[in-house]
Amino acid sequence: MSLAELQAIEAAHVIPSYARMPVELVRGAGTRVWDADGNEYLDLLSGISVLNVGHCHPAVVEAVRAQAGVLTHATNLFYTAPAMRLAQRLAESSLGGKVFFCNSGAEANEAALKLVRKAKPGGEVVVVHGAFHGRTYGALSATPQESKQAPFAPLVPGFVVVAPEAAALEAAVHEGTAAVLLEPIQSETGIHPLPDELLRAARAACDRVGAALVFDEVATGMGRTGTLWAYEQTGVVPDALTSAKALGGGLPIGALVTGERLADVFQPGDHGSTFAGGPLVAGAALAAFDVLSDPGLLASVRELGERLREGLRALPGASEVRGRGLMVAFDTDDAPALVRRALLDERLILNATGPSTVRMLPPLIVTAAEIDDALARIGRLLAAVTA
Questions:
Q1: CA 244 from centre of chain
Q2: pLDDT tens across 56-75, in order?
Q3: Is 62 left (phi over 0), alpha (psi -120 to 50) or beta?
Q4: How far apart are CA 251 and CA 11, in angstroms?
Q5: What is the pairing mode between strands 212-216 and 192-193?
Q6: Which of 44, 215, 297, 351 is most buried (most C-beta within 10 Å)?
């Protein structure tokens, strides 16, 4: 089936909620993908930070193959070993409390919102400008971006939006605050790390009034910043965190992980999900965990992230280079056009998060040679613009 035929089917039968690139991908391996015509692409997006282990990692493929032949679904009315083992591993690798499974980052944040509201009934949730927590109603209400919220008003009440500044956040937290919800690094708006000062202020303010501090680590977790969890580099420990994207090694799974204080707030019947933590996706997640928790890989993420940022800083036409680990962005004129040319002319997959921002989220298994290759391709694209 040709690309034109696929596009005709989309026009006739698919709700137009995505602006797709004019390429049909048919195969992936490691840091590479191939289209229907056999063209090879270097992927610096990882399915938007989903494929931290790379495309079709052999350990994940084998885990899925083995589990698919035994048991794919059981519901949470029964025990399965993959789910219990994954919960243990998530808790022990982070906050030491308990885990609620779901199917996506938005669902994980919805679970977090219900958790903090049950812990402190009727309490407000403080969020900061530039945040993105998902597109379901609670998560969207926590995402103060006019273009995303306005078409779907009225939203869920009880959210307080402040500037991403320590003083503003401290002033917004009071006895009626249930939680502060933050991304350690804001990803969807162009890779903007929140200052450690702000995170420390949030921790102190929550402690002052008995509110919960929740970190949205959907994009920053599972090794993306060079530690398993981004909060490990900040010196600030939240009361709960959310995870998804790379957690499943390419399969859809999300999780809310608590510290001890919030571990027993939910009781049977308070929340649920039909598919959540199923044996197939939990098995894939366990395999991905083995890969992404390797100290050598995490050290490489830190080193290669610095190599990528330094290389970008040396390129004329790239400005405001920023990020942590292999979570990197830079500004340039007409980022969407550059990203499109990168795909079609240089066979390089990047992402524009706005009119001037290019985002890069390479698989964490990327090599130094591939980073240098990507920099050369980006350099040619930028040179063509400035020529």
A1: 7
A2: 999 999 999 999 999 999 99
A3: alpha
A4: 27
A5: unpaired
A6: 215
Q: What is the DSSP letter of 227?
A: S
- DSSP single-letter state for residue 261: G
List domains and CATH numbers for the chain: 3-56+302-386 (3.90.1150.10), 71-292 (3.40.640.10)
Question: Closest Cα partner for 116 from 78, 83, 154, 142?
Answer: 142
Q: Position of tokens 């939203």?
A: 155
Residue range 22-51: average pLDDT? 97
Query: What CA–CA distances, in Å, run from 51 to 120, 262, 341?
Result: 36, 30, 23
List, for residues 338-365, the tens digit of each pLDDT value.
999 999 999 999 999 999 999 999 999 9
CA atoms of 71 and 173, how far apart (whole Å) = 47
Residue 156 has which token pair?
Answer: 């869920």
- In angstroms, the CA 371 to CA 305 distance is 9
Helices (H) and strands (E) in the chain, counts: 13, 17
Q: What residue type is assigned to position 293 of the chain?
A: S
Q: Is the pLDDT of residue 386 over 80?
A: no
Which residues, other chains included, contact 146 with Cβ-Cβ below 8 Å and sequence gap of 6+?
none
Q: Which residue has the tokens 């366990």?
A: 286
Separation between Cα atoms, residue 51 and residue 296, nearest integer Å? 18
Q: What is the pTM of this model?
A: 0.96
Is residue 221 a contact partner of residue 326, using CB atoms and an 8 Å limit?
Answer: no
CA 80 to chain centre: 26
What sign does the dihedral 260-266-268-272 (CA atoms) show?
negative
What angle (nearest 5°) sits at the alpha carbon of residue 190, between those of residues 106 and 57? Answer: 65
User: Following CA atoms 129, 195, 372, 43 in sequence, which dihedral angle do they give, to the nearest 10 degrees?
Assistant: -40
